């Protein structure tokens, strides 16, 4: 039996935690089941984690799964109107699933072809409840790091091309939504820009490593919520992947006061649900106007 939808002043949202595999098709099937569950439970906005469609055994696997930027941009590209198109299975899936369930989906990330054959854009695409794509944000901060006291190292710039897009905030029936991805969480100036542009909700689809997640995941997500008085929806990858990488899980939804409303507790696929008060950010900003007290640009 479906759970009752919340009152009009609240909106039910979902952070979709995944343990993504090394092939696209089973990941899309798994994401489809999780999104259907979120919709059945009354969610109107669902956020998928970074690399939800592919966590390959090799960094270059994403190049073979790269798609041209396409379906969801206009009704003519909707898979329902173009069933013969098989060049963009991930985007087709997202557009069709959003329309099928009447669900807004923020899907981070999709490998979108770039001008360079050996790199792709890591794109966070947002689809409305009719299946129309309403936004695309390409990750601007790439995870090129070596972890302290460890041989663990990553160089996303080897296969990803950083986005040149400005910070992005979009309108929705649930308020203004700011877009960010994973490593972006370590750059508070981005979130300040999103807040200045009117963001009330910020999504942060992620694939935090187990090492960095254990140390910093909750601190960063909660800090971005507190600093900017926004709701943070932060789904994460979880568990072991084909490459041997382990991700942290603990997908969270935080309110604008930095309180964790809901959190995943396993390293499995999981739908994290919370009802968020659409008026809370505005009330907090009025009574606790720290955003207007800034003295440094």
**Overall number of domains:** 1
* Spatial gap, N to C terminus: 51 Å
Please, how many helices? 6
Give the strand line-up of the largest sheet.
5-4-3-2-1-16
> Residue share in helices?
10-25%
The shape is globular
Q: Give the class from helix and strand content and strand pairing.
A: alpha/beta
Give the CATH topology. Nitrilase/N-carbamoyl-D-aminoacid amidohydrolase
Radius of gyration: 18 Å
Q: Give the overall average pLDDT.
A: 91
CATH architecture: 4-Layer Sandwich
Extract low-pLDDT stretches. 74-85
Count the E strands. 16
CATH superfamily: Carbon-nitrogen hydrolase
CATH class: Alpha Beta
Key terms:
six-stranded mixed beta sheet, Nitrilase/N-carbamoyl-D-aminoacid amidohydrolase, alpha/beta, 297 residues, globular, 24% helix
């Amino acid at each position: 039996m479906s759970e009752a939808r919340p009152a009009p002043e609240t909106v039910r949202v979902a952070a979709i935690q995944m343990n993504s595999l090394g092939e696209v098709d089973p990941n899309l099937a798994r994401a489809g089941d999780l999104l259907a569950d979120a919709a059945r439970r009354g969610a109107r906005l669902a956020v998928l984690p970074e690399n939800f469609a592919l966590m390959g055994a090799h960094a270059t696997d994403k190049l073979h799964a790269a798609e041209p930027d396409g379906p969801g941009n206009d009704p003519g590209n909707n898979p329902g109107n173009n069933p013969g198109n098989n060049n963009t299975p991930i985007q087709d899936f997202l557009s069709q699933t959003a329309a099928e369930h009447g669900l807004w989906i923020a899907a981070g990330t999709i490998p979108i072809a770039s001008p360079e054959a050996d790199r792709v854009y890591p794109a966070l695409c947002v689809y409305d409840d009719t299946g129309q794509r309403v936004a695309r944000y390409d990750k601007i901060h790439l995870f090129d790091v070596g972890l302290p006291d460890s041989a663990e190292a990553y160089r996303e710039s080897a296969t990803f091309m950083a986005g040149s897009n400005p910070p992005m905030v979009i309108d929705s029936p649930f308020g203004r939504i700011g877009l960010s991805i994973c490593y972006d969480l370590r750059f508070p100036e981005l979130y300040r820009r999103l807040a200045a542009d009117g963001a009330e909700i910020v999504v942060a689809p992620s694939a935090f490593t187990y090492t960095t997640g254990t140390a910093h995941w909750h601190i960063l997500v909660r800090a971005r919520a507190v600093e900017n008085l926004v709701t943070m929806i932060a789904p994460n990858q979880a568990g072991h992947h084909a490459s041997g990488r382990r991700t942290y899980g603990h997908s969270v939804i935080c309110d604008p006061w930095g309180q964790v409303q809901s959190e995943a507790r396993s390293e499995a696929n999981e739908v994290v649900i919370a009802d968020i008060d659409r008026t809370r950010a505005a009330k907090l900003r009025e009574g606790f106007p720290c955003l207007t007290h800034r003295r440094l640009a």
